[in-house]
Amino acid sequence: MARPLRYAIRSLNGVVRPVDELLAPPPWSDAPPLFLLGSARSGTTLGYQILAQAFHVTFLPRAVNLAPGLTHTCFRMFSQRLREPPGNLQSNRGRTKGLLGPAEAIGFWTPWVDEQGPRVNALARDEIALANAVHRLQGHLRAPLLTKCLYLVHATDLLARAFPNARFIHLSRSPVPAIASLYTIRRGISPAWWSVRPPGAERVSSLPLLDQCVWQHFAVEALVREALAAIGPARSRILVYEQLCSNPQAEMETICQWVTPAGWQAREDWQPPALSPSEQVEPELEQRIRTSPEFRHA
């Protein structure tokens, strides 16, 4: 989206937001939110979709990304449809199908996460305001928030403080196929597209694109591991992409045992999808990835 148009939309959302806030329901906080974290092309969107189908949750639809100033209006208009996420698991670079599918909805988080300059930086804004915003959002469906927004990797400490009982899942994937997918996307769309730009990206900005992608993957993974180590094992879990694809039912049962005591509810009618991990990497590309200096130094 062109920058002038993006600024115009943000300005318009700022105008309508105070009116939209009048439609917010009473806050609901009987169960903690859950945040999915991980590097680009690691299966975070797939995990997001499956969790949204397996549990009764509040998720942010794509419509909120387009008009965050009308978030509560959207939930008032489509509350019934938002209780049942779409049954398909299709997505394109993290974008799910339809305006009401689970989405990153970065527009909802922009009061606390800044996309300007080096892509994203966590802003130390009012934690109480953040908690109130999420609790009011949860009030529409009276269900905990489930969300995946890759940019939030920079704000994990802020989220952990705002929601002392929040849960975090690290969606992890084998590095070679994840890097290969990231490289294919960046090469095909724009080498300047980073998804998430970790601190220190300036060091690798002059390197060949493949080396940038190798560094990017491991740098984001390190960010997630460091953030979750500070939060502690009781509030975080690792969900491995390959295991999720091989046996989604077993993985959801494990997560169910973890979040049910905190107030989460599983959907009784959920049926595990048939999945197969996308792991094939051309031998020549795999060799280039493994011999990258950034891979050896990771």
Strand proportion, as a percent range, falls in 5-15%
Distance between the termini: 34 Å
Rg of Cα set: 19 Å
**Annotation, overall tally of beta strands:** 8
SS-derived structural category: alpha/beta
Overall mean pLDDT score? Answer: 88
Helix content: 40-55%
> Low-confidence parts, pLDDT < 50 over ≥5 residues?
116-122
| Major sheet strand order | 6-1-7-8
Q: Choose one word for the global shape.
A: globular
The largest pleated sheet is described as: 4 strands, parallel
- The tally of helices reads 13
The H/E string reads HEHHHEEHEEHEHEHHEHHHH
Mind explaining what this structure looks like?
The chain has 298 residues and is an alpha/beta fold. The chain is built from 13 helices and 8 strands. The chain has a 4-stranded parallel β-sheet with strand order 6-1-7-8, sandwiched between helices. α6 packs across α7 (156-162), α8 (175-188) crosses α9 (209-231) and α8 packs across α12 (283-290). The longest helix is centred in the C-terminal third of the chain and has 23 residues, at 209-231. It starts with a helix and ends with a helix. The model is unreliable at 116-122 (pLDDT under 50).
